[in-house]
Amino acid sequence: MIKGRTVNLRRLKIDDLPYIFKWRQDAELSRYYDELPINMPLEIEHEIRTKISSPNRLDLIIESKKGEAIGVVFLKNISWKDRNAELHAMVGEKDKKYIGFGAEALFLLLLHAFRQLNMHKIYGRMIEYAKESEALIKEVGFEKEAGFKRFIYQKGRYWDLYIYGLLNREFEEFLKSKKGRRYLTDSLYELDDQ
Amino acid sequence: MLRGKSVTLRRIEKVDLWQLWQLHEERELTLFKELKQLISWDELNQDFMKYFGWKGHFLVEDKGGKALGVCSYKDINWKNRSCELAVQFYKTEQMPAIDSILTLLEFLFKELNMSRVYSFVPVFFSFENQAFKKTGFIKEGNLREAVFLEGKYHDILAYALLREDFSPEEQ
Questions:
Q1: Angle, in degrees to the nearest 10, between helices A17-24 and A41-53
Q2: Crossing angle for the helix pair A178-187 and A168-176, nearest 10 degrees?
Q3: Is the whole model's pTM more than 0.90, yes or no?
Q4: Is A116 helix (H, G, I), strand (E, B) or coil?
Q5: Which of B79, B140, B143 is opposite residue A153, by nearest beta carbon?
Q6: Helices A131-140 and A101-111 sit at what angle, rounded to 10 degrees?
Q7: What does the alpha-carbon distance between residue B134 and residue B6 come to, in Å, rounded to a whole number?
Q8: Which residue in chain B has the smallest CA separation from A80?
Q9: Which of A111, A124, A176, B162 could form a disulfide with A87 if both were Cys (CB 3.0 to 4.6 A apart)?
């Protein structure tokens, strides 16, 4: 488990099916991930089983300190040779008290990816209207690397998709900055063996 | 089989393997993904379906039947009507390369009803980069240090072409 100040990250397990299913049924949320909110529990279960056993993924559940599951963060398409991976984060619970939890979860996963998994680069995709997420990842030092014109079709029209990338050395720069140092001490980052 | 002006695109058969294998050695490409990790001829034969047994993978030949390279489309998203296109050429001749890209694009836009075709090309494949620019693809970005080869990281360039910008006559 990866422990933070306000959240912990733990591995996804098959018992998490009800949460994942609930979040994936949320029409508003699913717009951000370009998925359709019409899944069957059986499909999701199959997905979770495949994810758990894949060496190119790391799926983590964001938990509040009380142990409530509030979202997921994950790395996919991990390329161990090129040392890069695609980052995704989703806070499924919309309760206001969870504001800021997503940011810490993202930060913890980045720390884990760069400091433990020895990644060289982490990248993410961002649909054009995801302004909040965009601001968040820019804060950590992500740079816009590409803008894909008319990539995603939703609500009767096409939308652009942006690719953001963060290199190891840029993240280390961020950790040295005032904001980064605050994040680091606030997060009480530690790894435990379980 | 897809027919262009000077090339044809057809599915790869097992009998093509030896020819591909030899061409591959001539110009270092990443056709066989594990080649860098020393795959054997036997392994390649055994895993034929893994490498070539998926729809959308074509051998490019000139009219005389000589192999020039491979091109493929993958990751079709039917909702967004987009897919990725990849090409690798053994012979760095501009005309057949452009022709084969245009032939495949014609198929993707006019038969499969795609709205957007995109491609990712490492910077060191300068011939392929040129070919994409010449066929009307727009460079949409530069994925920094995304691939590791020969001791260092290289950028990957992102290209895309929208259906309304596709005009094969102009090329």
A1: 120
A2: 90
A3: no
A4: helix
A5: B79
A6: 40
A7: 16
A8: B148
A9: A124
| Residue B74 near residue B104, CB atoms below 8 Å | no
CA distance B110 to chain A (A): 18
- Domain architecture of chain B: domains with CATH: 2-170 (3.40.630.30)
Residue of B nearest to A79 (CA): B147
Cβ neighbours around B105 below 10 Å, total: 22
What angle do the packed helices A101-111 and A178-187 form, to 10 degrees? 90
Question: Where are the extended beta strands (E) located within chain A?
Answer: 2-3, 7-11, 58-64, 69-79, 84-91, 121-127, 143-154, 157-167, 190-191
pLDDT confidence of residue B28:
59
Of B99, B91, B88, the C-alpha closest to B171 is B99
b/e burial code for range B135-155 (CB count within 10 A of at least 16 → b)? bbbeebbebbbbbeeeeebbb
Partner-chain contact A145 B140, CB within 8 Å: no
Residue for token digits 């760069």?
A: A114
Taking the CA atoms of A149, A152, A155 and A157 in sequence, report the sign of the dihedral they define.
Answer: positive
Which ipTM score applies to this complex?
Answer: 0.85
Residue A139's CB is within 10 A of a number of other CB atoms, namely 15
Helix (H, G, I), strand (E, B) or coil at A48: helix
Kindly identify which residue of chain A lies nearest to residue B152, measuring between CA atoms: A82
The tens-digit pLDDT sequence of chain B (171 residues) is 999 999 999 998 888 888 877 776 666 555 544 455 566 778 778 888 887 877 888 999 999 988 888 899 999 999 999 999 998 888 778 899 999 999 999 999 999 999 999 999 999 888 899 999 999 999 999 999 999 888 899 999 999 999 999 987 766
Taking the C-alpha atoms of residue A42 and residue A51, their distance in angstroms, rounded to an integer, is 14
Question: Do B160 and A148 lie within an 8 Å CB cutoff?
Answer: yes
Q: Point out the least confidently predicted range of A101-110, A175-184, B35-44.
A: B35-44
Length of chain B: 171
Which residue from B95, B107, B91, B93 is spatially nearest to B10, judged by alpha carbons? B107
Block residue for tokens 């020895």: A118
